[in-house]
UniProtKB/TrEMBL annotation:
Residues 64-235 form the FAD-binding PCMH-type domain. The keyword Disulfide bond does not apply. This is FAD-binding domain-containing protein. Belongs to the oxygen-dependent FAD-linked oxidoreductase family. InterPro entries: FAD-bd_PCMH, FAD-bd_PCMH-like_sf, FAD-bd_PCMH_sub2, FAD-linked_Oxidoreductase, Oxid_FAD_bind_N. One of its GO terms (molecular function) is oxidoreductase activity.
């Protein structure tokens, strides 16, 4: 093994202490050899341009440094079945990648194992008879929104275009969430390949209704989804400017913004209103340049001042508020497809008085100042999850996150590291862990798995954690996924 690969192997997170390196290596080779025979060399690759491009496509540079033993590029659900059966029989490690935007190291790729990469399954269509949106797992949100807009419908999906459908399995926070629930609350039917390669269709009412619920927040732990049928939201076409809003950018007034955010989270419960507050520092030499971005929309002809007045009254450096179609809303944050940097996410969840939000901001500012030499940008973002969102989800059958009613903010703590930093330095990791302790979730609130650190106890924070564990034991009694794939802990 070349020295560079040995170093790499040493750096990647380990999966199964019980399996020796040699066994892991042999198991992966066995699975890959079998798959090459069964599926052919165009669908199963061990090197070459498609293999290299797929590796490099991981959004977090840390995930682009893994080298799977082979990559399977399925074009049908049957290919995924064949792949999982071979993985299961060989007891190989494996991973699944759709949009590639996981910030968590190792959650969408694998060293010494089989990577199933959905880049060739990216169709999005509308079924008017069932009033459903059908997504293949490899589609990105910008592609889905563009394909469906002519029909006047949209999925409850991500807010950034290059992100993919892995978002759905974590729950999913959308511009449509205040009225429609978490993105996953809009599942109608899912085709799922279980760890042993068997394929099932799960719905809220068939024999797999428990698995259906677990897939609404269970991430990559409960099977591989090869087809999503989602409720269509009739958002209109590009010409239907039924929304009003846009972005406001501030270069100061952090305290006023935190006060406005705290009040919004506590008090606003209008399913037509949605905001995202991102406090960003861009590191420029010795300076942290504040760029505070507030995206705010109302599904109506203007921004009601009783909802948005606090934000609107703070002097901004730029603002582009105006009438928009949902297509415009969905595209406002762009693609987010810049690659080549180590990225790190962490999660909290807050509801409370103004000082709670200001304290979080101050802790994050101190952290950003202390470690700024490592970062291009550092971000503290707040996505309000109003009571209307939680109730909409419950009305649609409920999800496994089972957040308490009343509303709160999902808090994302995000750093993009400077080019040249390939591993998160130990001292920064200490700082990150300290920051998590300084900004703990308010009691009883769930963390969001799409925006967490891999060490955070996300499943444990769910309202239905005990049920989640029972469903996992039922569908994966050998704990194959936990032993052979990285992902959220706690099962
Ligand atoms: C720039 C950016 C913007 C974001 N914006 C939002 C946002 O607006 N709202 C929000 O809720 N979240 C957002 N997120 C977080 C996002 O939900 C997660 O990063 C999510 O994991 C991305 O899904 P993906 O398909 O792009 O990534 P991937 O890394 O491909 O997949 C994510 C996880 O899901 C698993 N997975 C993917 N597909 C399948 C499948 N078919 N079956 C089983 N497991 C699967 C993967 O193994 C991996 O563990 C954002 C993230 C980034 C980086």
């Amino acid at each position: 093994m070349p020295a560079s690969i040995r170093i790499l192997v040493a750096l990647v997170p380990t999966l199964c202490a019980a399996q020796s390196n040699e066994t892991t290596h042999d198991a992966a080779l066995t699975a890959c050899n079998q798959l090459a025979g069964l599926l052919g060399s165009s669908l199963v690759q061990t090197s070459g341009p498609s293999y290299e491009t797929a590796i490099a496509n991981a959004w977090n540079l840390q995930n682009a440094e893994f080298q799977p033993t082979c990559i399977v590029f399925p074009t049908t659900s049957s290919h995924v079945q064949v792949a999982m059966k071979a993985v299961y029989d060989a007891k190989s490690h494996y991973a699944v990648q759709s949009g590639s935007h996981s910030a968590m190291k190792g959650w969408n790729t694998v060293q010494e194992g089989v990577l199933i990469d959905f880049k060739n399954m990216r169709n999005a269509s509308y079924d008017p008879v069932r009033d459903s949106i059908i997504l293949e797992p490899g589609v990105h949100w910008q592609e889905a929104v563009a394909a469906l807009e002519p029909f006047g419908v949209a999925p409850v999906g991500g807010r950034v275009g290059d992100v993919g459908t892995g978002l759905l399995l974590g729950g999913g926070l959308s511009w449509l969430s205040p009225s429609q629930g978490y993105a996953a609350d809009n599942f109608k039917e899912l085709d799922v390949v279980l760890v042993n390669g068997s394929a099932i269709t799960v719905t809220a009412t068939n024999a797999y209704s428990d698995l259906f619920r677990a897939l609404k927040g269970g991430g990559n732990r409960f099977g591989i989804v090869t087809r999503y049928e989602l409720s269509a939201v009739h958002t209109g076409t590009k010409d239907d400017q039924t929304w009003f809003g846009g972005q406001m950018i501030f270069d100061s007034s952090a305290e006023a913004l935190m006060n406005a955010t705290a009040r919004y989270v506590r008090e606003v419960d209008d399913p037509k209103a949605v905001i995202l507050v991102s406090m960003i520092y861009i590191v420029a030499g010795e300076d942290l340049v504040p760029v505070y971005l507030v995206v705010l929309f109302y599904n109506g002809p203007n921004l009601p001042t009783d909802i948005f007045g606090d934000f609107l009254s703070i002097p901004s450096v730029s603002s582009d508020l105006g009438p928009r179609s949902y297509f415009d809303v969905a595209g406002i944050l762009g693609l987010g497809n810049e690659r080549g940097f180590v990225q790190h996410f962490g999660a909290s969840a807050l509801v409370g008085e103004e000082n709670l939000f200001l304290d979080a901001f101050n802790h994050w500012t101190n952290f950003s100042t202390a470690y700024k030499d490592n970062f291009n940008t550092t971000t503290l973002a707040f996505t309000p999850i109003p009571d209307s969102q939680i109730q909409a989800g419950r009305a649609k059958g409920g999800n496994i996150i089972n957040a308490p009613g009343g509303g709160f903010a999902a808090v994302q703590i995000y750093q993009q590291f400077k080019a040249g930093i390939n591993v998160i330095p130990a001292d920064v990791k200490v700082g990150i862990d300290r920051l998590f302790k300084q900004i703990p979730p308010s009691p009883g609130l769930p963390l969001y798995v799409g925006e967490c650190d891999s060490d955070q106890k996300v499943f444990e924070s769910y309202g239905d954690y005990e049920l989640l564990k029972r469903i996992y034991s039922k569908y994966d009694p050998e704990r194959f996924n936990v032993k052979h794939s990285l992902g959220p802990g706690g099962l």
